[in-house]
Amino acid sequence: MAHTKKKIGLIGGGQIGGNLALLAVQKQLGDVVLYDIPVAEGLVKGKALDINQLSAVDGYDCRVTGSTDWKDVAGSDVVIITAGVPRKPGMSREDLLDVNLKIMRDVAANIKQHCPNAFVINVANPLDAMVFALHKIAGLPKNMVVGMAGVLDTSRFKCFVAEALGCSIRDVEALVLGGHGDDMVPLVRHSTVGGVPLTQLIAKDKLDAIIDRTRKGGAELVNLYKTGSAYFAPASSSIAMAESYLLDRKRVLPAAALLEGQYGLSGYFFGVPTQIGAGGVEKIIDVQLNDAEKAELNKSFESVKKTVGEVKL
Ligand SMILES: NC(=O)c1ccc[n+]([C@@H]2O[C@H](COP(=O)([O-])OP(=O)(O)OC[C@H]3O[C@@H](n4cnc5c(N)ncnc54)[C@H](O)[C@@H]3O)[C@@H](O)[C@H]2O)c1
Ligand SMILES: O=C(O)C[C@H](O)C(=O)O
């Protein structure tokens, strides 16, 4: 019988990779191949077995295979890359550039060979530079390559707003643009709670504190965990993007996409609102910004350009 279930290739079976596999199965998005390097064979085989046994309890019909062979990943509809080292307290994401670029060279070359038709979501840091390298090395069409950061950064912002107001997180709408770094741009003017502008609900000093906490949200988790970085929320955020592609939901989600003139910027992957559906990144939405917002976005873009400038392919 022909294989009709979707196939999800997860590259990296660490903290985020394992959670991605669990979520993909729980949402019954498709069969999963959890790939890692040979030294981590027991880890991916163990996680696969453990999740498959949970499936029996809960009645999920999607299977996870733990593998160290790219041939098993071949033909995936979606590939999510979490292969890479997480930072430790005191480090910036940019400090990971050399070590993670080495890993990305290997991963991107294998994607080119084994999964040329997949929608590929990169999660590894430094995010915007890694997705740039991935796109160059794998040679995939621009609409089929994205970086996950904006969904997570926006989700953090919404979480802090809901906490500050004591309101349901469901009614918080917000948008964080820019690179996945400390100068990301939470767009307060475009954020609402139940349709009411956020600026009417939270005093400026409190809002500034929320913006600051959002910008440093990754480091807050790194300082708590001490041996690595966030993994539950990053996994959920990546699955939201994969799901929108696989189910053609056409959700509008912030993602690092290749800019070609939007926001007056070009040539780099950068966090902007995108529409993700069966065509991958089907649209990039050019939000109208005022001068102050534009200046903040340009600053964030310069930071991304600087890091990408250090990428030697
Ligand atoms: N974009 C974001 O918002 C975001 C959020 C959290 C973490 N991250 C990044 O995601 C990455 C992974 O984080 P984690 O917590 O899962 O780390 P982790 O250390 O738990 O897992 C990483 C896995 O990658 C594997 N790996 C190494 N080289 C590989 C290769 N060549 N091919 C396949 N797998 C390989 C390792 O063996 C390890 O199992 C880090 O770079 C981290 O900074 C990004
Ligand atoms: O902060 C990190 O190093 C991991 C990730 O980018 C995050 O924002 O949680």
UniProtKB/TrEMBL annotation:
Catalytic-site annotation from UniProt: 180
UniProt entry keywords in alphabetical sequence: DNA-binding, NAD, Oxidoreductase, Tricarboxylic acid cycle
A Pfam match: Ldh_1_N
EC number(s) reported in the record: 1.1.1.37
Record's protein name: Malate dehydrogenase
InterPro entries attached to this UniProt entry: L-lactate/malate_DH (IPR001557), Lactate/malate_DH_C (IPR022383), Lactate/malate_DH_N (IPR001236), Lactate_DH/Glyco_Ohase_4_C (IPR015955), Malate_DH_type3 (IPR011275), NAD(P)-bd_dom_sf (IPR036291)
Organism: Archangium lansingense
Domain of life (superkingdom): Bacteria
Gene that this polypeptide is encoded by: mdh
Residues annotated to bind substrate: 87, 93, 125, 156
EC supergroup of this enzyme: oxidoreductase
